[in-house]
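User: Run a structure prediction on this.
Assistant: Running it now.
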Amino acid sequence: MAADYISITEQGLIACRKYYARHCPPIVLFLNKTRFEHDGAMRHMKKILVFFLFFVVPAEAMAASERLEYRQQGISLNGETVVVRLPQGYHLELLTDELDGPRLISFAANGDLFMGSHSGHVYRLPPPYRQPEILVELDDYPHSVAFRDGEILIAQTAGVYRASYQPGQKTLAPEALSLLAPLPGGGGHNSRSLRIGPDGRVYVSLGISGNCSDQYLGDGYDIEDRRGGVLVLDESGDRPIWQVFASGLRNPVGFDWHPGSGIMYASNNGPDHWGFELPPEYFARLTPGSFHGMPWFQYDGKRLQRDDCINGKPPRPMTAVSLPAASFPARNAPMAVAFVPKGHFIQALEHDAIVALKGSWGTQPRGDAFGNPATRREPKLVAVRFRGGEVQGVDDLVTGFQFESGARWARPVGVAFGPDGALYFSSDSGINGLFRLTKMN
């Protein structure tokens, strides 16, 4: 009886503090510190506590996200059938495998789909997205594409480039591109993810080069070492200038804005040197000026720890580090992020975030590449579940991309919702292709 009582009161205290800070009802704060051994008093105080919980804590604080139901589906690939697990009532199809290293996905206003790639190709796929065309070929890793005001923007490793572009235009000459704003270049995590924010500004994410690289988006660092976070472009002056939006992220490949709150969330790849189980990969809530600690501080799933792999003084103290909103098991390699828009896709997932987990090369037990490949994390698509604008947990969306041997037939990278409400995702390993998850007729 006493154990049940303590559990209930602690749950009430957590919920109160989450939603009301210091203004929890006095009864909850009092009960959390008190032990009643008499059964009669116990039953009486439980009733009081339940009353306060139901009438003080918002319903969304106690509610859970609607659970997904799943089914299995076979997909024929080169004469072999693979089986995936996906939401009930939905169908997965491979649209094309005629791509080379496809990465992030974006859509133009007319519905055309675009992808950057490892291979240097910027792809254009008009509906129904089965016939890829090469819009332009570039040398410096065109990872992502965005559109604004009659322009196409392409993020390459060392800068964001722009060119005039008309909807439906089939090709773009490399010389038509001009530099909008330079970025720190260099190897190691050399992808640059580009998006236009709800405020119309240009945002770019970039990672530090390695596990423990002394690189930071801030003063006191050389231009080439200003890496590891998200930048926003200030175009109000004579020339565009990058400003720091969020820092201390090792490799934030994907980011998007919550449709309800307008808050940015990003995926983040944790380092490899702590082994197979730590530190977890995570999903971060980014606000202007937020600092996420890496490489000086690592979140171990419960608390922050100082990482001794880097000796230099951290640019900001541990107390300034923002904790993750959600986490994924280590060595999952989270990639792109896309929030589910209202009125599209699965109703239960509205305003939840879809994240591509590529699955890293790390194997058990040490996390290096030399163990049994069957122990590697499975590539998958997951849904970060929200309720009332707050993260509630993480559920699988689509699984089955890895065989029992550890071989992968696909590894998701880019994710985006199309004008038809379907979820599109790219794979740059195994099948180099484009997939679509759509509602069954």
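The chain has two domains: 2-60, 70-439.
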